[in-house]
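Now for one record.
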Amino acid sequence: MSAKSPSTVGMWRMAAILLAACVVLSFVCQEAPAYDYAAHESIVDYSGVLFNAFRPGREPINYALCLEIGARHEDDVDHVFGHSDPAGQGVMGTHFWDADNGPLDGVTLAGLTATYENAYQKVTGYGVTNWALWQQATISYAIGDKWNAYERLGHISHLIADMSVPAHVHEDAHNPDYFEAMMDTNFRAWLPYMDQKQLAQGLIPIPKPYSNDFYGVLYYLMYTTNQRADFFASASNASEPWTGYAGDPFDPAGLVSYADWEPQMWYYQDPAHLDTHLWYCPVDGKLGNIGGGAYLCPEHNTWMALASPPLVVALRYTTVYAVRATATLLDYWDRTVVNPVVPEPGSCLLLAMGVGLLLRRRAR
């Protein structure tokens, strides 16, 4: 079945639909007994609405509250490795991933002596023996425990969102990061002004070979979100935005193109520039000059806003993509777990599965 495109929906109409639907979805969960909590929940809500716009009436929408609960819990509970300590750093140590160094790169943070598993490993179990979040979700679903299945899926959505934060992809132990501090303060107010053009693109197409299995699908979603955030600098301390790590356009897998990004964005690869403001017009989405400017928004110059770089970055390049990535996660879940494609007897897919099982047995 082909995806239903909302391309005919105007920018403001789409924003209104998202806002109204999120209010409804916040109270829906059939079996319910980091950004900060509110930001993670908002990303889940918006991704659910976006998913529903392209694939209306599917089961994951009925478990929005379960997804929200999981997104909240990820900062408090480690279902995979059992990390914990009084300050919570052990739990959140697995919320980082320097994807430039590959899928097995361990997380080392300044001030902490331990090396943690990265966010991708926590989601998929790649290179570790623990039952990862994806396996826990699918097993729970298989035995009819949908509440825990969607709760674990919420944990995964949290980690996808964390990949949109520059500090999390630089393994920058922030306290708090300038980006997160600004987003947490303004998140609900600015979400309606996310780049509607990008949202209208909907679900993220996943190319082969990444689409072959859940390792590849989740790698693609997390990696491409990660590399978009990696482009920008991070600040280790919100009160000193010039501290931290520089961003870079280095993309080892070659999956993200920066060619059409606005010139102003390159300025924010340097941590020293993270407190330099620019003009942002939420009416038409245009940017003014670095350090302010005389750009006038339409509609009698209303809506002219002096925006911090983290807000503009999130609205255009990182958070909006994380919303699309999470919606794509829901789509993949719905297609492979809720409504898996069962091959007909004698089909090539069935034959390939049989050959794969045979080779695995021989390898043992």
Notes: Confidence is low (pLDDT under 50) at residues 1-34, 299-304, 343-364. Strands lie at 107-108, 115-116, 278-280, 287-290, 305-307. The longest strand covers residues 287-290. The CA atoms of residues 67 and 150 lie 6 Å apart.
